[in-house]
Task: inverse folding
């Protein structure tokens, strides 16, 4: 069985979707949730599904990387799933978990990726640039923001009357449908 850790910084709707999807799966156990915000909605969702929660600050992630990697290895974590985690993963993590860190991005990479491009910032840029389509990209994490090997992309139309909110709803629907399926490829 694969033990996974989900890293999230926000509300945790993708994480909760993964908790439900893999609840009775004998191939994977989501063992741990890691967040960098002690007020993040993911904490309540994780507690609801009886997941252990680890809160780690940006400074701790950067300055105590080796210790945190050791902690994850003691927890027997095989796979790291980034579900809206807003901190850059240190290079030592990429080396410690080669091709075992998966991220979901709310755009069709390589467009609208990189530092500071997340959530509504991405949707706003897509609408401002009058793109005809947007979507999600699920990719492996490497040392650069949003530059890892693409595992899966799914598209949706961007209509003239779409707002940030309506586009976000379309993207979230794609995320909830396809993120678990992409993770299954690693089981």
Result:
């Amino acid at each position: 069985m694969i033990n996974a850790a989900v890293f999230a910084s926000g509300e945790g709707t993708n994480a909760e979707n993964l908790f439900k999807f893999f609840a009775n799966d004998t191939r994977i156990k989501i063992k741990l949730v890691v967040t960098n915000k002690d007020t993040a909605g993911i904490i309540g969702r994780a507690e609801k599904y009886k997941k252990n929660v680890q809160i780690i600050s940006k400074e701790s992630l950067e300055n105590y990387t080796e210790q945190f990697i050791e902690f994850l290895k003691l927890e027997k974590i095989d796979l790291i799933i980034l579900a809206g985690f807003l901190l850059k993963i240190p290079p030592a993590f990429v080396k410690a978990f080669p091709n075992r860190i998966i991220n979901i991005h709310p755009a069709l990479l390589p467009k609208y990726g990189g530092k500071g491009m997340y959530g509504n910032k991405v949707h706003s840029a897509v609408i401002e640039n009058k793109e005809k389509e947007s979507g999600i990209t699920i990719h492996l994490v490497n040392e650069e923001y949003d530059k890892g090997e693409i595992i899966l992309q799914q598209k949706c139309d961007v209509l003239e009357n779409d707002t940030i909110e309506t586009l976000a709803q379309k993207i979230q629907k794609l995320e909830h449908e396809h993120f678990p399926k992409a993770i299954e490829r690693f089981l």
In short: Strands lie at 2-7, 28-35, 52-55, 79-82, 101-105, 133-140, 150-157. The longest strand covers residues 28-35. The chain has a mean pLDDT of 96. The domain at 105-187 is CATH 3.40.50.170 (Rossmann fold).
